[in-house]
Amino acid sequence: MNFVRMSAVACTAVLALAGTDAAAQARLIAAAGRYPQPVRGKVMDELADGLRLTSFEPHRTLLDEPAGGFGTQELMFDIGGNGFSVSNRIGVVGQPFQPGVVNRYLELAGKNEWTLTSNVAAHPFHIHVNPFQVVAVLGPDGRDLTDPGAVDPADGDTQFAGMRGLWKDTLFVKQGTDAGPDGIKTRFYRAIVRTRYQRYIGKFVLHCHILDHEDQGMMQEIEIVLPDGRDGLAKGGHGRH
Ligand SMILES: [Cu+2]
């Protein structure tokens, strides 16, 4: 389950910081005691058994699969006439978060390639439940800033260098350039990520991880649903075409 995978990532990170001495091991075991059952017992046993974590498995890469096998999702963060908003269309101003409105229905067992952009200001994109794999972060000039050693010529930024293939739940999305007369940028930084929707059915959110922005509406609600058997999705229990 995703939880187990994410726990493995977290444990690995903690070990990298804390070393593998007995005190760190004891702290990890104690922390695992807060996990839900039945994960708790398995994790505690494996941590006690030489920090083996052998039942954890890495995410299978999505980089090798052809783009045609993915659904597509667009996202544009913005601060402007509609306030703090998120749009499903790059270049089209979106709306602030509205409670009770599902902004995206996604299919369980589906795979999507997302393109993340920002019209005004830079925003750390964060999504819950299913992590994503970084495919590319393209600058406004089209160069891939995830290449090893890549430097953003606009500001010397190297934060994306070597990031291709990494699994993450948060990614910085920089502001586009060259605003048109309507205030919409004509060139964007495009963060391209891939994800699959496994096991979890239901609602969760994506949002800007600057909480001040999130609180003002820079958030969307997502619902993972089952296919309805007629090439559509079973939204809210009522099949729609
Ligand atoms: Cu933001």
TrEMBL record:
InterPro entries: Cu-oxidase_C, Cu_oxidase_CS, Cu_oxidase_Cu_BS, Cupredoxin. Residues 113-222 form the Plastocyanin-like domain. Residues 1-26 form the signal peptide. GO terms for molecular function: copper ion binding; oxidoreductase activity. Coiled coil: none annotated. Keywords: Metal-binding, Signal. This is Plastocyanin-like domain-containing protein. It comes from Thalassobaculum fulvum.
